[in-house]
Structure formats: structure tokens, C-alpha cells
Amino acid sequence: xxxxxxxxxxxxxxxxxxxxxxxxxxxxxxxxxxxxxxxxxxxxxxxxxxxxxxxxxxxxxxxxxxxxxxxxxxxxxxxxxxxxxxxxxxxxxxxxxxxxxxxxxxxxxxxxxxxxxxxxxxxxxxxxxxxxxxxxxxxxxxxxxxxxxxxxxxxxxxxxxxxxxxxxxxxxxxxxxxxxxxxxxxxxxxxxxxxxxxxxxxxxxxxxxxxxxxxxxxxxxxxxxxxxxxxxxxxxxxxxxxxxxxxxxxxxxxxxxxxxxxxxxxxxxxxxxxxxxxxxxxxxxxxxxxxxxxxxxxxxxxxxxxxxxxxxxxxxxxxxxxxxxxxxxxxxxxxxxx
Length: 338
Ligand code: FES
What we know:
This protein has six helices and 19 strands. The strands form four sheets. It has a six-stranded antiparallel beta sheet. The protein has a six-stranded parallel beta sheet with strand order 17-16-15-14-18-19, sandwiched between helices. The longest helix has 13 residues, at 219-231. With 338 residues, the chain is an alpha/beta fold. It folds into three domains: 2-97, Ubiquitin-like (UB roll), CATH 3.10.20; 102-197, Translation factors (Elongation Factor Tu (Ef-tu), domain 3); 210-332, Nucleotide-binding domain of ferredoxin-NADP reductase (FNR) module (Rossmann fold, 3-Layer(aba) Sandwich). 17% of the residues lie in helices and 33% in strands. FE2/S2 (inorganic) cluster is lined by residues 37-40, 42-47, 77, 79. FE2/S2 (inorganic) cluster binds next to loops.
């Protein structure tokens, strides 16, 4: 039996007795704590926490979405973590956040539209009698119509846009969702969704500069966050968004970004493409587009969304530029299979 202390961002502290072989998430949920979670198998990152004292490792042999550098700096997925003696974790969200329980809801397709070589915009509208809310940056699970296959996508819209929900979905060769989107999806189709999930969302009332680095459809949660910042009363923090795709044909939502640049004067957008040339984008990756010349203060807050390799590189780069690791928040894409 190990004594484990969990501290929420609002200071709420709970001490748990975790049995040998039990993971910290299960122990916390059994005790009634409002802990964010979804897959319970190490892939969704919803149960992310930071080890602040003691020893606690992921179960031997378990694979997880965390990169080695994230584990080295103390990040843990509580669903995979077993305590080795007394230890403490901090959670990146208030104790009230987990009180919003995920729900299953029905929605209708409003629009399905190819917006880049390999990206589709799917606009859903909650059906009458269905409702859910979420925080900007969180994701939902979508059941591919006609199958029992579930995929996860971050909302590009904000809670204020409900009942409309917009997703940007990358087309994958042979993918079940891709097949539906390309061959069968039609306006008014019924789509079952479940959510919200995820511990990656905009922190409230942070005035320090924001840095956002997005790879491909990792732009979606950033759009939700930017629109939320824009709509929040009071002085807005400066936002530096670096958005990258592999090729110019992969870039999307550029008209929206331009519009938001007018609406939110503190927003600066940098576009990058790994290869090919494009007037509006530099060649390179979106991580390298942020440099020491940006003079980011140590209390700047960073949001990262993209493939694990990009996240690992961005964390290392931003920490080298002086950002505190505790102010860097990330959502990884996870392999979805077919
Ligand atoms: S609930 Fe732990 S990673 Fe998904």
C-alpha cells in the first residue's frame, strides 16, 4: 500500500491509499476523485499528471503516448502508473474540471468538405435533446457511421459555437473514417459522438504570452483556443502560432487565420512546410520557426499539438529558449490503426 497525494491546479489536495499492483487512476476514481481519463490504456493522454515527489513509474512493459523526454521530466499517465512508496502528483486542471462528465450524444452532419490535399472539414450539429460542453482544446470520440470503429478528434470550434461542432480530419490511406468521409458521408447523416475528453485545454486567465505549435490537423484545438481568447473580455495575451504541414497542399484554414489576425491584433501566425515552396510559408518545421529572437519570457505558456516527434522536439526547443516545462502543454496524435 502506498500513500499518494494528488493536488489539483486550484490547490484541492487528496491523499489516496494505492494498493500494490493498482494504478493511481483506478485508486483515484474508486475514491470518487474527479480525474480526467478516457482510454485507460495509455494512449489518449487524458490522465496526464506530473510527479512532484517520490517514485512512480509506468507499469513495466506498458507502452504509452508519452515520449521518453516527457517521462524523464516527471510526466506520467495515471492509468499506467504504479506508486513505489509515498509520492505526490500535480494535475494541470482544477478539481471542478473533471466534474463535467463525458456524455454520448447524437449529431447530424452539416457539412463535409475537402479543405486540403489530405484534410476534410466535418461540421456536425448536436441533435435536439443532445447536449455536451467542453473546454477549448479538448476532444471527442466519433463513431464512424455504419461501424463500431471510434476515432478521436479535437474540436476546432468553441463551446460558444454549440450546437455546431467542427472537426478537421486527416485522410489516411485505408482508414475507416477516411473511407466514410471520402465515399459515403452526406449532409444529415447521423453521427454518434462522446465527450468531452482530454486534459489539453486553454488555461483560464493567463496573461503571459502564448506560443502555439501545430502540426497538420493539430491546428484544430488551436483554432478553438484562439477564438476563445478573442471572445474573452479583458486584455488579450499575445499569441504566436506556428503552423506547419508537410507540403503546401496540406495547409488549410489559412483564410480563417488571416481573419483572426485582424480580429486579434496580438496574434502572429507563422506558416511552415517541410518540403516544396509556397509564398506564404517558410520551408522547415514549425518548431524551428520559433527562435531566440522571439524573446519569449520564462512565464510564456505553450500549447503543442501534433505527432509525438514534433512534440518532443518542441518541448526541448522551448525549454532551451527558457520556458518552464510546467507551462508547456501538449496533445499528441496517436496512431489510429486502419
Ligand atoms: S486514460 Fe490514461 S492515457 Fe487515456
